[in-house]
Amino acid sequence: MGDQNYAKLHIAMLPWLAFGHLIPFLELAKLLASKGHNISFISTSRNIDRLPQIPQTLTPFIQFIKINLPKALNLPENADSTKDLPFNKVKYLKLACDRLQTPLAHFLETSSPDWIMCDFVTYWVGPIAAERGIRSAYFSVFPALMLCFAGTPEVAMHGDDSRVTLEDFVKRPKWVSFQSEVRPSMFQLIRGNENFNAVEENVSDAYRLGATVRGCDAVIVRSSFGFELEWLNLLDELYKKPVIPAGLLPAAADTECHACWPETKQWLDMHEKGSVVYIAFGTETKPSQYELTQLALGLELCGLPFYWVLIDQRGVSDDDVIELPCGFEERTRGRGVVCRGWAPQFKILNHDSVGGLLIHSGMSSVVEGFQLGKPLVLLPFLMDQGLIASYLVEKKMAYMIHREDVDGSFTPESVADSLSLVMVREEGKMYREKAKEMMGLFGDRDVQDDYVDDLIRFLQT
Questions:
Q1: Bridge partners, 277 (sequence order)
Q2: Which domains does the chain have, with CATH numbers?
Q3: 3-class DSSP state for residue 19?
Q4: Measured in Å, how far apart are the chain's first and last C-alpha atoms?
Q5: Measured in whole angstroms, how far is the alpha carbon of residue 81 from the centre of its chain?
Q6: Closest CA relative to residue 146, chosen from 127, 173, 125, 122
Q7: What angle do CA 397, 401, 403 make, to 5 degrees?
Q8: pLDDT computed for residue 197 by the predictor
Q9: Which member of 95, 206, 369, 456 lies 3.0 to 4.6 Å from 72 by CB, making a disulfide possible if both were Cys?
Q10: Please, are residues 238 and 148 in contact by the beta-carbon 8 Å criterion?
Q11: Which pLDDT tens digit goes with each residue over 387-409?
Q12: DSSP assignment, residue 333?
């Protein structure tokens, strides 16, 4: 182990209250704990209770600190994470999170960790930690290209005269000097515009990101030089402070005995190798009724077996009802499964019958798919997903379903054709071969271990 001659660290972690953030923080926590460092993982009781179990060998090193989420006006009861409430109410969760400043300050005073790793939402962590002589790092679950698109901390916080309208944000930023077609689509910007700008006393996501970076001592990124060297180098120039890639954090083998797995495995065993498409859009991305209908009709049209993890409600306060087309499940029974609850994603993807993924381009799903050598079909919904998807397409790593730029419309035929191309047809063989090639980049445990050792060496200096 690269850090064996150094003193052991105590690292506090405060991820944003979204499982797409909590899980990567936990993965990094486990890697640090496996080197003998102590982790204080801070979140609400309800969120911690919903996290995957950690290996028993790591329990002496990871302490879960359960905190109460303060109440906020318009925040529904028991809404401890973004999956518990509709998209238009996430702003109230951020306001509640901002009220954690006092309990966090108390924790830092009584526990005195060497470092605290925070997320982009909690832009106030850096100054609170600095006042107490504790160093802070922003751990970005987003890749460097996403952060580069936002610009320097000052640009993120206060804007830039070259980006005034939404149309300006679909162009390559002026500070990106190398050639790249990475960009979001207009419909993704429109969809996320409420979070991007300040609404109802909430601080905008752009300001939160910029202030977080400005106030911290270092930036740690879920990324690797093999994945996005140019963007990591640019980020170093933009931030003018240490930027350390933590590796891509491939998922560990799932050894838990899930109650639903025997039945799921039995269904997967019925299908030929590489024939099943797995569809999931993360824990928070809920399609609109239009998107749900087009997807369902496309799956029906393509004729491939499918396993679809469908989020059709975000918490009990979500009254935007979406429904599959009438008769869809009856017409596809046997060929397809629609799972409306939790599914053991890694176990399913690791099954030989799964031949491809249809995903939203969230980094965790991208990493899991590629570490197992599964080709990707992308259907991004939000800005960060659009940036990741366009980068994967630019690098010819994956294929994206065509959507109209302004309204995001797409056809069932485009869904069916994209799946057939990537999973079946000869002209899509390049995507299947590329996915196998990506197993080394995304799944190499020795490479990941080196990134963690380098990170630890930095934290110990």
A1: 306, 356
A2: 10-249+444-460 (3.40.50.2000), 261-442 (3.40.50.2000)
A3: helix
A4: 17
A5: 14
A6: 173
A7: 130
A8: 59
A9: 95
A10: yes
A11: 999 999 999 999 999 999 999 99
A12: B
- Contact between 19 and 283 under an 8 Å Cβ cutoff? The reply is yes
User: Following CA atoms 208, 17, 28, 261 in sequence, which dihedral angle do they give, to the nearest 10 degrees?
Assistant: -150
pLDDT in tens, 430-458: 999 999 999 999 999 999 999 999 999 99
88: helix, strand or coil: helix
- Spatial distance between the Cα atoms of 11 and 112, rounded to a whole number of angstroms: 9
CA 5, 6, 11, 16 torsion: positive or negative? negative
Q: What is the spatial distance between Cα 87 and Cα 192, in angstroms, rounded to a whole number?
A: 9
CA distances from 246 to 24, 26, 134, 153 (A): 11, 13, 21, 21
Give the up-direction half-sphere exposure of residue 307: CA atoms within 13 A in the CB hemisphere. 27
Q: Which residues of 228-259 are buried (b: 16+ CB within 10 A; e: fewer)?
A: bebbbebbeebbeeebbbbbbbbbeebeeeee
Q: How are strands ordered across the β-sheet holding 218-221?
A: 62-67, 38-44, 10-14, 115-118, 135-140, 218-221, 243-245
Axis-axis angle for helices 363-371, 383-394 (nearest 10): 30
Alpha carbon distance 243, 213 (integer Å): 10
The dihedrals phi and psi of 21, each to the nearest 5 degrees, come to: -110, -45
For residue 158, the number of C-alpha atoms closer than 13 Å in the C-beta half-sphere is 5
Q: For residue 147, which phi and psi values (nearest 5 degrees)?
A: -65, -40
Which segments of 386-458 are extended strands (E)? Answer: 399-400
The one-letter code for the residue type at 71 is K
Helices (H), 80-224: 90-98, 101-111, 125-131, 144-150, 153-158, 186-191, 193-196, 205-215
Q: Please give the Cα distance from 19 to 17 (Å, whole number).
A: 7
- Rounded Cα gap, residues 140 and 388, in angstroms: 14
Give Dmax (Cα) for the chain: 64
- Radius of gyration, alpha carbons of the chain: 22
Give the C-alpha distances (Å, rounded to integers) separating 17 from 23, 281, 401, 455. 10, 18, 30, 24
pTM of the model: 0.95
